[in-house]
Design goal:
Layout lengths: L1 E7 L12 E3 L6 E6 H4 L10 E6 L1 H6 L5 H15 L8 E7 L14 E5 L4 E4 L8 H18 L1
Antiparallel strand pairs: 1-4, 1-5, 2-3, 3-4, 6-7
Length: 151
């Protein structure tokens, strides 16, 4: 479990960091931050930037049943220590993400599971490999191979 926090800004707001996304390894609360418009390489005079924050799994698990407003306040305190001078957002959305990460993948599974041939029904994702982006890619490749074999 973890929390995701979205901070939304007015058009023209500048988030002054030299990166688009960053994994945070030295904070007990925050694991990942992205400046969404930079990450997607989208500049707009009409829409403002947004910042996306993911907490660490241990933090999310420890605070899973807490009041969302209290958790949001804790995350914002940590974020302000990481991103000094972060502008005040026009709105904030805090989202509890109860199942965010695979802790135990399906054993002996080759990256996908074909449930039915006609019609073809294939399941996949990091739950069929290992929990990270590479696991998703590995599963996607296995799904494509299953599709090629059965179509």
């Amino acid at each position: 479990s973890r929390y995701a926090l979205g901070l939304f800004y007015e058009a023209g707001t500048w988030i002054d960091v030299p990166w688009a996304a960053q994994y945070i390894t030295n904070n007990p609360c925050i694991r990942f931050i992205s400046i969404d418009n930079k990450k997607r390489n989208i500049e707009s005079s009409e829409f403002g930037p947004s910042v996306v924050v993911h907490t660490s799994v241990p933090f999310g698990t420890a605070h899973l049943e807490w009041d969302k407003e209290k958790v949001q306040s804790i995350i914002l305190d940590h974020l302000e220590n990481i991103m000094l001078g972060l502008p005040k957002p026009t709105s904030i959305k805090c989202q509890k993400w109860r199942y965010s990460q695979v802790t135990k993948a399906i054993p002996s599974c080759p990256g996908q599971m074909t449930l039915h041939i006609k019609p073809l029904l294939v399941c996949g994702g990091d739950g069929f490999t290992h929990s990270n982006f590479d696991g998703c890619i590995d599963s996607a490749i296995c799904i494509v191979e299953a599709l090629k074999t059965n179509l």
